[in-house]
């Protein structure tokens, strides 16, 4: 078996097991069995279970930085990506939700963080960063830009960002537990974003006609 492919298979098997059982409850033997190799062979790729976790975290963060909208924080540089209308904001957010829920690596990694956040201080910090700090930073920057462009009325950008994004975070967590409710959540997100714009839009000319 190709050494490079084996290493990737180990990471994929470990992520699957960690997302179901947790890091502490998963043994190196279980990971090796899932890949179909001997435990000794696994150690030729990774020094220990912690090294596997470290590699997973590095890979997931790299993927998140490449594909997540939350990696886009320089709004002066990325002005073309500003959602200036409710329609644009809805499409942007729903696209991110689909990525979070359906990308196999991101979905499993999020479950690992949920399981391990009360046992592993480093993963607890990462959970806070991924699910709160980065999200709030992104939406605070977004709201600030929309205020500057006179799309939204003046207000406290951080509080407005919290009003915008934190309900969405709760709905994403609901889908993690009850994936069959994704369509319901998508409809709620649509209504929520349109209501946010209806409340905060500065210029009536921007408002879409309501039925």
Folded structure, characterized:
Helices cover 70% and strands 0% of the residues. With 211 residues, the chain is mostly helical. Helix 7 (121-148) packs across helix 8 (157-177). It starts with a helix and ends in an 11-residue tail after the last helix.
What's the gyration radius in Å?
Answer: 20 Å
What sequence of helices (H) and strands (E) makes up the elements?
HHHHHHHHH
What's the number of helices? 9
Percent of residues in β-strands: under 5%
Span of the ends, CA to CA: 61 Å
The backbone outline, from C-alpha atoms, is elongated
In the predicted model, the low-confidence regions spanning at least 5 consecutive residues are 205-211
Helix content: over 70%
Mean pLDDT: 88
Task: Provide the structure class.
Answer: mainly alpha
Number of strands: 0
* Largest beta-sheet characterization: none
Brief write-up:
The chain has 9 helices and no strands.
List keywords for this structure.
disordered C terminus; 211 residues; mainly alpha; elongated; 70% helix
Topology:
Elements: H1 3-21, H2 28-35, H3 39-42, H4 49-67, H5 86-102, H6 104-116, H7 121-148, H8 157-177, H9 182-200
Helix pairs in contact: 1-2, 1-4, 1-6, 5-9, 6-7, 7-8, 8-9
């Amino acid at each position: 078996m190709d050494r490079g492919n084996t290493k990737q298979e180990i990471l994929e098997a470990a992520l699957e097991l960690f997302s179901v059982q947790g890091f502490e409850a998963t043994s190196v033997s279980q990971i090796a069995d899932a890949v179909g190799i001997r435990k000794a062979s696994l150690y030729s790729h990774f020094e220990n279970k912690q090294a596997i976790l470290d590699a997973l975290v590095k890979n997931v963060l790299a993927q998140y930085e490449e594909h997540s909208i939350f990696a886009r924080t320089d709004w002066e540089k990325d002005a073309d990506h500003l959602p200036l209308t409710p329609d644009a904001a809805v499409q942007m957010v729903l696209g991110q939700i689909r990525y979070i829920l359906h990308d196999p690596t991101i979905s499993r990694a999020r479950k690992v963080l949920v399981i391990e956040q009360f046992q592993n201080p480093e993963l607890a910090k990462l959970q806070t960063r991924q699910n709160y700090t980065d999200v709030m930073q992104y939406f605070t920057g977004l709201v600030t830009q929309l205020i500057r462009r006179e799309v939204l009325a003046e207000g406290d950008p951080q509080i407005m960002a919290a009003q915008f994004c934190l309900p969405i975070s709760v709905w994403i967590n609901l889908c993690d537990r009850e994936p069959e409710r994704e369509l319901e959540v998508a409809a709620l997100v649509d209504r929520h974003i349109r209501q946010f714009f209806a409340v905060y839009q500065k210029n009536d000319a921007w408002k879409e006609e309501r039925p």
